[in-house]
Amino acid sequence: MKFGIFDHMDRGAVPLGEQYESRLRLIEAYDRAGFHAYHLAEHHATPLGMAPSPSVFLAAVAQRTRRLRFGPLVYTLSLHHPLRVAEEICMLDHMSGGRFEFGIGRGISPLELTAFGVDAAQAQAIYIEALEVILQALTRESVDFEGKFFRFHDVSIEMAPVQQPHPPLWYGVARPEGAAWPAQHKVNIATNTPAERARLITDAYRAAWTAAGNPLAALPLVGMNRHIVIADSEAAALASARRAYLVWYASFMKLWIRHNAKPPNAMYPDNFDDLQRIGLGVAGTPARVRAVLAEQVEAAGINYLACRFAFGDLGFEEAQRSVALFVEHVMPALAADARARE
Fold first, then answer.
1. Does residue 274 sit in helix, strand or coil?
2. Which letter does DSSP use for residue 174 in this model?
3. Is the per-residue pLDDT at 337 higher than 80?
4. Cα–Cα distance between 17 and 84 in angstroms, integer?
């Protein structure tokens, strides 16, 4: 059982420069505490994503940490030139001594793609070509590719990543039928779904993994993420979570409301109490959070939990307290439970 961090870097209540510095201080705490990886979302034209260029922020992460792995979840490949992405991956992998994690996807929001002049209907096809080009660039000395959107002939590649043949891949999965491809290609997955739905996804992943002749002992990371707020009293935790979630949700919905549209595959309600009720978040004392997450981890069949400690207008001290209590009281218990099930 491993633990990570998922971060939208949504707009908070402080100036942006202060928000970046506060987040980097939290990331230093994640590093000291032994979290496996920090995953940063990419979003554009929305307050949900105040780190629209993940590589820029992750370069700072590389320099402020020593053990923590990190990467985008995901790079929106339909918006990027694939050779540039490959170069940035190599730089970040070297800057961190081989700690980069490569999240891949086409981009979940057609509104964000349209803002950059990309036809959302073609995003999947662009993503598929871009990924093939990037993997060539990370594993070969030259790139040759002939596609509908990208064409390269004998392009010299002068950089290679530290991790061979390339850094670990991550992919977001919302439905069980989406689990086969990453399992067949040994790609780690994460989902934002309730435990019961997550179980359908993790079961489908394990089935595809074993069908491909792989042992369960070598299973990649299959995870889910949760909003988490922990305090010394349940009242204090709920007060912080309810307040901050409203800010996060407003950022999450702003672009969709502006365009009179609804986000695809989104299960987020408009208040934290309902978020807790459906199992996508939890707030309370360490004992309560430990009990809720233990039940969800077993029900979902995951071996990786990505925690969202910083969101909305949560202050640095509030988020830092959640992390400290999680590391002291929750993380060891969940890890022990996982070992007992093995």
1. helix
2. -
3. yes
4. 26
Q: Which residue has the tokens 């999965």?
A: 173
Q: For 7-24, how does the pLDDT look when each residue is reduced to its tens digit (9 = 90+)?
A: 999 999 999 999 999 999
Q: Report how far residue 140's alpha carbon sits from residue 19's, in angstroms, rounded to the nearest whole number.
A: 39
Is the distance from CB of 229 to CB of 237 less than 8 angstroms? yes
pTM of the model: 0.97
> What are the backbone angles phi and psi of residue 111, rounded to the nearest 5°?
-65, -40
pLDDT digits (tens, 9 = 90+) for 47-94: 999 999 999 999 999 999 999 999 999 999 999 999 999 999 999 999
Neighbouring CB atoms inside 10 A of 200's CB total: 17
Is the domain 2-73+173-341 a CATH 3.20.20.30 member?
A: yes
Q: Could you tell me the residue ranges of all domains in the chain?
A: 2-73+173-341
- Number of alpha carbons in the 13 Å side-chain half-sphere of residue 323: 27
Residue 332 CB neighbour total at 10 angstroms: 12
The two three-digit tokens of residue 138, written as one number: 């990370």
For 219-270, write each residue's pLDDT tens digit: 999 999 999 999 999 999 999 999 999 999 999 999 999 999 988 877 899 9
Cβ atoms of residues 173 and 182 within 8 Å: yes
Tell me the torsion sign for CA atoms 225, 229, 230, 233: negative
Are the C-beta atoms of residues 239 and 323 closer than 8 Å to each other?
A: no
